[in-house]
Each structure stands twice: as C-alpha cells, then as structure tokens.
Fold each of these.
Amino acid sequence: MRNDTKLAPETLNAQALRQIDAGKGGLTPAIFPSTTYLRDENYALTNPQHSYGRDENPGFVVAEKVLARLEGGEEALLFSSGMSAAMAIIQSLKPGDRVVAPRIMYWGLRNWLITFCDQWGLALDLFDPADPDAMVQTVERQGTRLLWIESPCNPTWDVIDIAAAAEIAHEAGAALVVDSTVPTPVLTQPIRHGADLVMHSATKYLNGHCDVVAGALVTARKDELWERVCHVRLHGGAILGAFEAWLLQRGMRTLFLRVRKASESALAIARHFEGHPALRAVLYPGLPSHPGHAIARRQMDGGFGGMLSLRVKGDAEKALDVVKRCRVFTRATSLGGVESLIEHRYSIEGEGSPIPKDLIRLSIGIEAVEDLIGDLEQALA
Ligand code: PLP
C-alpha cells in the first residue's frame, strides 16, 4: 500500500492508496463474497486475519483505509447504512447518559434519536443550531456524554463552529461526533478541528452515484468509545455487502472532482438567485450574507458544498409548484449524486417538521451549471 504522506489526498484517493492486487496485479481491488475462511488440519485459520464474514471483509479495507486517511483519523469502519453507523455510536452509550444534538439536522436521525433515547434510558436535549449560546448551555447540563452536530446543518445550512463545539464538549467530558455527510473530507476534516468521531451517510457524496446505501465512521483515536463501537458492528452485524463495499470504493475515487464541481455550481447558483424577486431567501454558507459565512470560510476549504435551499415567496403550494415545473432537476429525496435533485423538505418530513413550508432543497450534481440556472429561472418565472 502506498504510504507517501507527501502526496496530496486527491492523489491517494484517485489511486485508492495504490493497493495493487498482490496475486493478480490488478489495479482495482477484487470482490470477496466468501462468508467463511479455511482452517488447516490443526484447526488454525490458514489466514489468521479472516475468519467469518460478519467480522470483516477483505473488500472493506480499501474504502476504510482511504477514508481514515482523508479524514485524518486513526481508523474507519464501514456500515450497512448511515443510520446503522450513527446507531453504533448511540448504542455504545450507557443508560443515563445525555445526548445533545441540533434541532435542525438530518430529520430521520433526529426522529430516531427522540424515539431511541426515550426507550433506552438516554437523555436527549436539542438546541437551536443558529444560536451558539444555546449549544453551550445545553451541553453544560450534567451527564452530557455526546455532542452530535452537523455543519452545515441540513437543510437550512446553519453553520456550527466545530472547534468551538469540540472545546465545549471536552470541557463537559463529552465526545464530539460530526455528521460530515454534506461537506465530505474534501471540504472539512472535523478531526483536525477537534472532533472525536466523524460519521458519513456514504450513500451520498462518498459513493456519489445513488446506487449504494452505506455508512461509515472514522475515529480520531482508538479509545474506549471506539472499542465499544467496533463491538456493536461486530455483534450487531450491520455490515456492508461485499459488492456494495466494492462499488463504494470505486465511487470514492472521483470524490474530489464531484464535490468540487458541485460546490462551484452551487455557489454560482446561490449568487445568481440571491435577491431574485420570487425568493424570500437563498440559504447557502458560501454567500457573504449568510450568518455562518465567516465560520464556514474558516472550517471549509476549497468550497462550501453542493447543497443549498431556496425559500420562495409564498406557501407550501407555491414551493411545490416551483418543484413541479423543473425539467432538468429531478424530483427525488437524497443528495450527493452526480444528478441534481430538488425536493420540498416539509412534504418529506411531514406534520411537526421545523422546516419552513416555503423551503426547497437542492442537491447540485455535475451537470452544466447554465442548464441548472435556466431550469430554476423558468420554474420561478
Ligand atoms: N446523515 C445525513 C446528513 C443524511 O442526509 C442521511 C440520509 O439522508 C443520513 C445521515 C442517514 O444515512 P442513510 O440513509 O445512509 O442511512
């Protein structure tokens, strides 16, 4: 395996750390479907690293090693989904522990946290991500073991200062977890800002082609919490399939190109539509008018991400009408693929959602930006 620390991350990633298949000389890793491994006459494993398919798979290694390297972490683990990666952390907590998370974050996880924490004797407090004081006050409450953040927060793109969050969490004796699905390690490496764990829905940008559901965790260090997380994956069994792991490592090879192109286009779209007469606001941390812009500049490197939201002047009906009129954007949930997606978050999240009804979320892909701008122009006209 190539171990040249002088090489840029994109070089290591494009060459998948150059893990040449030793047996055949192949430049891409093989797929290992076997669930069990041979023992010799003395009942010793012929290859002591491999025993059973739920423990690990030789095919995970490439994506895990590349991701740990890109995030500046010590080790990474793949999971069968982003949610199972998140749950491995939550299941590593003990009854009575307190979890703190933003009120605006990936809604599926927020809702699941509310249900799970209640059922498993964990305390949960949510804070307003647009208010840094609220985060401090909430974390300071006794028994906080985990501060969970996203930055930017999906889908309003409020920016949380990761370094400040790490300081607050550590002072309280808590670990900081950052769901870094949206910025990816191309734009932000939370561990370098003090995070203890980084989580990804690898279903999104890491894979990048809307054809794999996967999750990943990266740890800053192999400590007791990480040991418990490894234990949960081993015995809980939320592992990724061999073929999905292979697809993921292949998708990851173009991560830098895809994320940079999406970020450039998102910035161009945000600039173009800021002040548009049909819009109440354009929410994008790359705009100087965004309240989190200064922090985003500090903690994001090389772009502000491929996600933005538009708030139309009008109600849910008006927003849905704009979504309906789009021809280049595809109406679908999810994000981080090569094709641009448009969605009305309130319709997805439903009654009780804190997301404004006039908000349209855009996941920008790698198409020509003029086509995307033209499509939104005609839809808003
Ligand atoms: N985190 C974020 C930011 C997400 O957008 C999602 C899914 O949409 C998840 C976590 C959950 O990941 P998955 O769908 O891979 O389980």
Note: The chain has 14 helices and twelve strands.
Amino acid sequence: MTSSDDTRSSNFIRQVIDEDLAGNKNNGRVATRFPPEPNGYLHIGHAKSIVLNFGIAQDYNGTCNLRFDDTNPHKENDEFVEAIQKDVQWLGYQWHDKVYFASNYFEALYTFALELIDKGLAYVDDLNAEEIREYRGTLKAAGKDSPHRQRSVEENRDLFQRMRAGEFQDGEKVLRAKIDMASPNMNLRDPTLYRIRHGVIHHQTGSEWCIYPMYDFTHPISDALEGITHSICTLEFADHRPLYDWLLDNVSVPCHPQQIEFSRLNLQYTVMSKRKLTQLVDEGHVEGWDDPRMPSIAGLRRRGVPPAALRDFCERIGVTKSDNLVEMGVLEDCIRSDLNTNAPRRMAVLHPLKVVIENYPEGLVEELSVANHPQDDSMGSRTVPFSREVYIDVDDFREEANKKFKRLVAGQEVRLRNAYVIRCDEVIKNQQGDIIELRCAYDPATLGANPEGRKVKGVIHWVSVAHAINAEVRLYDRLFSHPSPDAGKEGREYKDYLNPESLRTLTHCKLEPALRAAGVGEAIQFEREGYFCLDSASAADGAPIFNRTVTLRDTWAKIEQENNS
Ligand code: ATP
Ligand code: MG
C-alpha cells in the first residue's frame, strides 16, 4: 500500500466508482460532497471524510461540494461555519463552485414535502414525541398506526401549510412519511420529516421559518439537487439508506445519488464525538477548540501538524467497512516522517544548566556556520554564536555514570554539537546540594572536526548564554489516560479518564537566536528533543511559547507495552 499524494491507495469506494464509470453511469460524472453540521469544529475523523471525498473528486476529475448541513438551528452558528471552511482549505482542498447550505433548500424541501402529501405518502401527526416513540414499537414488535395516519390529502395539506404559518406550538404537530409501521427497519416506520421550532434564529434564514426539515429528509434531496453521484457517509447511516432511496424515488428530483457507507475513524486516547469535544471546551478541560491536545483540525494545526502529514495519515488508515481503533503511533509516524524531511534543525535547551568554559577568551564570540538539515543541503545554513558561557541540558550531565551514558560526566569530555570538545573540571553546587554550574575547559583544536585518535563518546546540544532567547515550552501528552475513554469501566465516563499530565509547561528554556525568526506554526526540530512550533500567543512575561508537536521517537509503543504488561 502506498500513501503519497500522487499514488493513492484504492479502496472499495473507488472500486464502485470505477465500475460506475465503466458502465457510463451518471454519464461519466463523479460528484461528491462533504456535509458537516456547523455545530462544532472539525476533528481528525472529519479529515478522513474530507480526504476521501475531495481526493476522489481530484482523482476522477470530478467535483466536491462543501455543504453545511444546517437543519438544526439552535446548535449551529457562523463561528463554526468560518472555522470549517478554514480547516478544509488548510487541509489543502478547495470546494467546487460556492459554499452550499442545506438551508438554501428550505423552500424546495417544503415543496417536496407537499408533493409527498399529494401522493398520499406523508401526513401530519398530532401525537407528541413520547407517543410517537411508543407507537413505533420495538425491534421485536411491529409498531402501530397513528390515529391520524389516514387523514385526507386536503387535510394534510391544510395542516402542513398552517404548520408553516406558525399556527401550532412546538411539538403539537409533525409531518411524517407514510411508509410502513411494521417494517423491520425502524427508520421506515413513518419517520418524522418536519418539526416545529418557534423562537430560534437560524444562522442563515433568521426567523423566516418555524418548521424545520429533519436530516434524513434534507440530506438525500440536497444531494440530488446538487447532482451528487456518490454520497459517501459513515456506517451508522447504512440503516437509513432504504429511507434515503425511498425519498428519492418518491419526489421529483433530477437524479438519484448512490449512498455508500464506510467505517468512521476512531483514534486511541481521544474522543471524537462533537458533543464530547464541545463539553471539553465548554467546561474548561482544555483551552479551546484549538487547544493542541484536541483531536480537532484546529488543535492539530496549532500543535504544528503539517496538513500533508494528516492527508498521509488518512490515506494510510484506508477506507473499509470494519470498525477500527487506530493507534496514536500511526498518526505520530506520519507526522515524524513529514517533519524529519521538512523541519529545519535548531538547538534549544529545555532544562538549562550553565557551563563556563574557563580557558575560552572573555568577550570573544565566534559565529559558527551550521547546516539547517543534516541530509538536505538545499535547506542552507545559519550562524550560531559560541561564547565563554553556554547552557547545556541538566539531563546531559552526571557527576558519575557508567559507559552507557554518552554525555558529559565530571572529569570527562563531550562534544558540543557543531562546536568544540569540552572537559568538565569542576561541579558547583548551591547550599542545598543542587548542581548550579559547571566549570569546563575546551580544546581549540577540535572545532567542527573530530581529530584522529581522539575518542569523544557523546555529542550534546547547547546555547550561548549571552545570546539565548528565553522561551516557554509546552510539552503535550495524550489527553486521556485510557486508550478508549468512551469504553472505560462501568460507572465511569470519558471525562474520568482525562490525563492530568497532558500538558507540562517549561519556563526559562533557552533557544538559539536564529529561532527569533520562527514563524507561527512553522515546524522546527529542536535537536535531540523533538519537533516544535511557535504558538500564536506569548507567555505572561512576553516570552515566546513553543509547542511540542511530537517527540523524536515513538513513545506510544512504550505506553502500549506498559499497559499490556
Ligand atoms: P459527530 O458524531 O462527531 O457529531 P457527525 O457525523 O455528526 O459527527 P458531521 O458534521 O455531520 O458530524 O460530519 C460531517 C461528515 O463527516 C459526515 O459525512 C460524517 O459521516 C463524517 N464524519 C464524522 N465523523 C467521522 C469520523 N470519525 N470518521 C470519518 N468520518 C466522519
Ligand atoms: Mg451529523
């Protein structure tokens, strides 16, 4: 299986399309759509659907519409409409023509509802929601007909028009399809097509309507009106397909799109339902929809995940009909392989320990030329200042260590990356016994080279004290401590599995001065530490904030091992 952008892996949906094209169905046209409800931000599950729908349109020379499924007025708003467009474009896609809204079809949908009434295929019911539920029956027992099911066409027309005119209260009446109260498929037991909603302001149509069409009625007709050929959705809609087809067979729409279902993406250590993500935001468990720990596209972007890595991920996981729970390691692998190629290297010390090089001339600064990428000369080089005082990471020093520790040990040597070999001569501690400074000596003959016969075990990174940028660094971990927080132990809900250590903030980190030019969101490798990017916000003290996108190696595999043992 390949996963690059130009050699996409095939899948069963593409096979269906290939067959349709071979049979000249739809006159060789391919038209898909991505239909989000604007009641939240998009998440990585939506990315799977976006890559699938827009990817098919690209590869088959077809079109993909962006259509907002906005039939549920009280949860939808323009903030989400804007955010969704931004996210789709950031992922690298452009929708066909204009942005579509299901609400643009409210008048047309109303006319189609009248058509069903005229054909004796829809009726106005006075049962309330609870009664409708009771009458619907169960999977084992057939439902029973509403006492209003036999209303005449004239009466239904009249009542439906008066529903629109606002003569009835919320819940007093609904319009239902007249299909089969004994159908083994519950979706065909006279599903509701319209309900009354007074006093809500729809983000597009304002207070023009007080009746709103249901999703199951709106969706197939919207697809048909837009000339969609393949209406791709997630598996939970498979049982709705007979209703989808029934509606299109019974109203005068220009075409009959084909609904095809695939399994939704589930990702370990996170939740994917918009309802739950909304709760995390509203209850302050995260900083917002774009919190870098969120599985939202906005969160992934802020975390520094490149759009190409997300597309690669969506290709790699494939499209099937089987339920799946994808390991976080798969996503991180896609991110790492993109960033390894594309992220320039910089030096940053996250836990600084000061080193004074006693035999280095005071006041001297050497501007060392350093490659931006070890394997890619086209990324050029930068200068890094070296001086008498540098920071190294606390973890790169030990007073005593065995041979496995290939960093700096008291009395021994180490190479400062891209610079000189130093030897630690003295360890300075405070009254509590903490190491606060090292006194070292450098060998001027070792700049950038490794003279023959000289064995230096380790190379560590460093930053010149006088030139360092002071920064805050945020290290993110999984948001939940359970691989499937939705399916935890009984009596516990997903929020009980929130990981209290999902964010670790390090202050007073020391960065090399070239990082002053970093742009918000641009991927950078902090050598030996991981991939990072500059955040759009600054810390309270004005210091820049860098978010860790991902570590250099797979830490998830280790977590899995721990969990399994
Ligand atoms: P949620 O259940 O999170 O509220 P939704 O399906 O109601 O999601 P929509 O805005 O209606 O959200 O989704 C738009 C499109 O994205 C739909 O076609 C839906 O099938 C698809 N989609 C949503 N979640 C996933 C997922 N986890 N994996 C793949 N596709 C998804
Ligand atoms: Mg939905």
Note: The pocket of magnesium ion (ligand 2) is lined by residues 37 (CB under 6 Å).
